[in-house]
Specification:
Length: about 250
């Protein structure tokens, strides 16, 4: 069932309102043909399956829908053209390889042994490694002290922020559900009223068609009676003429 709704809009560059007509092909809250007409749903499902099969056949003939869509996409940009390390990292992620673990040998304390025990460069390297390990230990201790001092409050603040965001999201979801329910309720009311109007107009249209048919049938009957009366008049005129001739 279709619904045509007139609406007025102001035309650009014109001071007069332009009347437009918006047509709706279906009223899902009012139409019940699939439920009331026997066999209609099976015919609709059959048509849908036939259309899907025809679409699949066209996609197969054209090389597949994926190929068609891929041809329409823009050229893939090259990321990090001047950063080989980042390109290698992207390739690693794309291939699904795991990242390399942090090498902790830099912070291990070890002294030269064997022939290296008398090598000054080996001792310099060991001293540098010990200094790095000491610096790493100092950083870890500082981080632990900072975490002990501020970690609890920071975690509480983080939880508070997360709970606040959760409440905002829940409120947004609830508002959206309310808007959706209001919209569906408004659509249902509008379509129900429009459907009742369409049903009333359809009944009136059928009544007018029936009256027109009755008038047409009555007109044809009247014309037939007129022709019959004309024939009788001609017959009477002929008999009257014969009687006049006999009387003379």
């Amino acid at each position: 069932m279709s619904l045509i709704v007139p609406s007025s809009s102001q035309g650009e560059g014109s001071s007069h309102a332009v009347t437009q007509r918006a047509a709706y092909d279906a009223l899902p809250y009012h139409d019940r043909e699939l439920e009331n007409v026997p066999g209609l749903k099976s015919r609709v499902d059959k048509e849908i399956q036939a259309e899907l099969q025809s679409i699949a056949a066209r996609d197969k003939a054209s090389g597949g829908a994926i190929g068609v869509v891929k041809d329409r996409l823009p050229v893939e940009p090259k990321l990090f053209e001047h950063r080989s390390d980042l390109q290698a990292e992207l390739s690693r992620i794309a291939e699904g390889n795991k990242t390399k673990a942090i090498d902790g040998s830099r912070y291990a304390l070890s002294s030269p042994s064997g022939n290296a025990a008398s090598d000054a460069h080996a001792w310099d390297k060991a001293l540098s490694q010990a200094e790095a390990a000491l610096g790493h230990a100092n950083v870890r201790r500082s981080n632990l002290e900072l975490e002990k001092k501020f970690g609890a409050n920071l975690w509480r603040l983080h939880n508070f922020q997360q709970e606040s965001m959760l409440r905002q999201y829940e409120k947004a979801v609830e508002d959206m559900r309310t808007q959706t329910a209001d919209l569906n309720r408004s659509r249902k009311m509008s379509q129900t009223q429009g459907g009742e109007t369409l049903s009333r107009l359809e009944s009136k249209w059928a009544e007018c068609i029936s009256r027109n048919l009755q008038v047409e049938v009555a007109t044809l009957q009247g014309l037939a009676e007129v022709e019959e009366l004309k024939g009788k008049r001609e017959e009477l005129q002929t008999r009257l003429a014969q009687l006049d001739a006999e009387a003379r």
